[in-house]
Amino acid sequence: IQFRVSVRDRALTRVPVGDPWNGRTLEWSIPAPPPPYNFAVIPQVKDRDDFAAAKARGDAYPVPNQYQDITMPTNTSIGMVFCIACTTLSLGLVWYIWWLALLSIAVMPIVFIIRSFKLDSEKVIPAAQIERDHTAWLAQVKQAQAVSRTEETSSLNHGLSALEAAT
Description:
Helix content is 44%, strand content 5%. It is mainly α and 167 residues long. α3 runs antiparallel to α4. It is elongated.
């Protein structure tokens, strides 16, 4: 039921600014949902609750002087295949199904060998795209209307609590 409600009401419950409850830690300092690279610029953390301190100082959402390309690994299914192979290996060993255990043991190195031949294992997200996305998100942060504690669970909350707006 929760999954169905979440899918049905996803447009109403979006919080694009990313900090709907005046969070204290860095995961609240990025958009929701987060971009693939998480942070447009790597944050310099100087305190345990650095984001909360930055909000108190009024510089929680800095605009960097320059954006850089971000290199990300490409998606791979190797983790899932390896997980399934390990699970079937365990089942084969526990229940003495030797052919299943041997098949699982054979699959693991084959998956790694196949993955080693994939040459395009990284993708580069250009700085221009990162700048465009981050600038658009910062504009959303500036335009977001602060909501009170009672409105935090309503569709009015776009990720900026009244506590945060007061700082």
